[in-house]
Amino acid sequence: MGVIERGFFVERAGDRIPGILWAPDEAVGPVPLVLIGHGGQSEKRNPNGLALARHFVRRHGIAAAAIDAVDHGERGPIAAIEDPAGHPDYIALWKRPDTFDRMNGDWKATLDDLLGTGLFDAKRVGYWGLSMGTMLGLPFVASEPRIRAAVLGLCGFAGPSAVRGRFGPRHRIDAPNVTCPVLFMVQWDDERFDRDGAFELFGALGAKDKRMHVHPGLHGELSVEASAATREFLAGRLT
Amino acid sequence: MGVIERGFFVERAGDRIPGILWAPDEAVGPVPLVLIGHGGQSEKRNPNGLALARHFVRRHGIAAAAIDAVDHGERGPIAAIEDPAGHPDYIALWKRPDTFDRMNGDWKATLDDLLGTGLFDAKRVGYWGLSMGTMLGLPFVASEPRIRAAVLGLCGFAGPSAVRGRFGPRHRIDAPNVTCPVLFMVQWDDERFDRDGAFELFGALGAKDKRMHVHPGLHGELSVEASAATREFLAGRLT
User: Fold this and answer.
1) Which residues of chain B neighbour A215 with C-beta distances below 8 Å?
2) B215/A214 Cβ within 8 A
3) Is the Cβ–Cβ distance between A23 and A60 less than 8 Å?
4) Helices and strands per DSSP (H, E), number in chain B
């Protein structure tokens, strides 16, 4: 099955949110849809996300869509950089009180627009987001009943990337409201989010139907096996 | 594919070890083999083990074999009982200094005999054992290079079922010597082995190629999904 890629924009509250859609070129009728939340200091069309989206289409017949997170990619100064301490604008993002609600609104408007096309099955929508894709995606999944299954993880309540308000207070409130089936991924040697804090986050998720896969490796070393399991999980729930 | 079930006995050091073999009825040439270690206060032909063995044969073309553990089933007074405090002979089993080495010897002799038939591929042998199947099976896997992949878990260094020498000193020594690929299973709400001690055991395993799957539920509540994952893992390594 071939992959059609096209850009789109979502207009919301004065914002113009850029996105990319990957869809099968031979779809007959509405197909399932997975929203992909990218990682921190990255953008909607990053190499891993691109490969993931194409696999969703080619191997599972599932469309995928990604948007630039607030201040990332085409929306601002934060792009792919190697500085582990963080871009100043990235640090600032987590100090602003409206970051989570803006992102929730952006995703909801994106989903509204995508479902409005009639190309996707509104009852078969999933979310995939690790690391910042969980930091910003967990509040979205918690508040959006149209998300029927989610892949979350590489994230938790402790570690260098959890500090300074980036992860914690809002997520403690929202985690019990994540009630759709969840696959939660942990890297045993994660240097950005401590494993104990990741386990605590898994425990806090409200979903009865949840499972956690743990693999050796650093934060950025998600294995082929682990990545495939995330796709298989969503495919199993949405197709 | 149909399943042939037949009993066998292994003679070793004056012991007569009873076992059961489940094999495909249509095998052409040597097939992979999985050794199944049963749980505590159970025996070689228990309902879960029987279903697992049949699934290995029917769905994967993999033969399975189980033996009664020391003092269990046909080998002694310990059988399936509901007493969570433990049969007195079960408690005594863990106080005897030779329990682990006896079981290692029993499994090695069983594997010798089974491979001697020529029915199985000596390069595609796996081990599957949870709970007591890990308590007794981990030392075996650590010492037996013919085991190419193992499913372990529902076990760890803490909790009511780990105390009194049942689990700990021997396993701390042996865990780093488990170097074959491992899938380690944890029940998040395990009332017999604390999850923290299970995580510690996972961390202690020497295998570089290891992964841990964690599901909600009590010790005895392994889900259909979790059980299927254990089969798929061994099938992926042995076929």
Assistant:
1) 210-212
2) no
3) no
4) 8, 8
Q: Which residues contact B4 (CB under 8 A, 6 or more apart)?
A: B21, B22, B23, B24, B25
Question: Which of the 8 DSSP states describes residue A78?
Answer: B
Q: Are B73 and B43 in contact (CB under 8 A)?
A: yes
Contact A104, A140 (CB under 8 A): yes
User: Residue B69 has what DSSP assignment?
Assistant: P
User: How far off is chain B from A195, nearest CA to CA, in Å?
Assistant: 10
Tokens standing for residue B92: 């005594």
Q: Could you tell me the two tokens for B44?
A: 């070689």
Gyration radius from chain A CA atoms: 16
CA dist., res. B199 & res. B196, Å (int): 5
- Look up residue A17 and give its two tokens: 């949110």
The C-alpha atoms of residue A142 and residue A178 are separated, in whole angstroms, by 4
B82-115 pLDDT, tens digit each: 665 678 888 899 999 899 999 999 999 999 999 9
Instruction: Give the strand pairing for B3-12 and B15-24.
Output: antiparallel
Using a cut of 0.80, tell me whether the model's pTM lies above it.
Answer: yes
